[in-house]
# Entry
Amino acid sequence: MESTTSTKKTSKKASKKTAVKKTAVKKKTGTVSKKTTKTTKTTRGSKKKTNLLRLYSEMTKLMVDAVDREILKRFKIIIDTGDDDITKQNLLAILKEPDDTNPMSYEERLQPYIKHYLFMIKRKANKNRDL
# Structure
């Protein structure tokens, strides 16, 4: 009889200890998640690249086949991982005067995508001319 009572007392003490530990862990994770949320918000806000995203949206309007889709998928990855954005004047030069645009004057990582945009513009012009 005594052994059963002592076992119950021991198990109650053990359950109280685990209950205390669980609350401590909850408090710690609560503060950590708040800190991470704050840093995530500031990071997202500073990485907004509106000019490259506008070029991306213009390219999606001209998308025709699977090759275009794959190139745009890679371009989106470059936009999300890169640090820089192009200037608004450069964007307007690409969009409004594609014939005068020199892709070599832009960053090396953006050159293939600008070249492909120029190709898409020419392809659309040729398709309209043939109709």
In short: The chain is about 80% helix and 0% strand. The longest helix spans residues 2-46. The chain has two domains: 1-46, 50-130.
